[in-house]
Amino acid sequence: MEDKFTHLDQKGNPSMVDVGQKAVTKRTAIARSKVILEEKILEQLVNEDIQTKKGPVFRTAIIAGVMAAKKTSELIPLCHPIGLDNCQVRITLNQNKEVIVECEASVTSKTGVEMEALTGASIAALTIYDMCKAFSHNIIIQETRLIKKTGGKRDFELKEE
Fold first, then answer.
1. Is residue 130 annotated as a catalytic residue, yes or no?
2. Is the whole model's pTM more than 0.85, yes or no?
3. For the chain, what is the mean pLDDT?
């Protein structure tokens, strides 16, 4: 099988992929974004969340991530609209005090959920930025990436170093 861009027709024009002949399978994807917050923001952490005038940061970001994953086809051109079976956003701090946002999406369908998981993780990270920027604009969102996918033609799992 040769590698090629799937969203281009024979003339190179944008084209939605025809999934009509694909098999319906269980498909899952996990995506991760990393958010670096200054210490003065992390000092606001109480009971595993940061409280602001706008509300609890991580809880709000979780809701935003799920909402975004559900609207992926409205945001990313040529994505198929799918009804997610499940979408979970988890936010934790790692040993380096970096905020780790993971979005796991699943569906039984003819097309995968990588874009939904990536969108969910990205928007949750952006929500953290939005809610914390009153403390500091020195916030870094980095490393939004696919961690794992199953179902479809081939599975994928990031080999972490």
1. yes
2. yes
3. 91
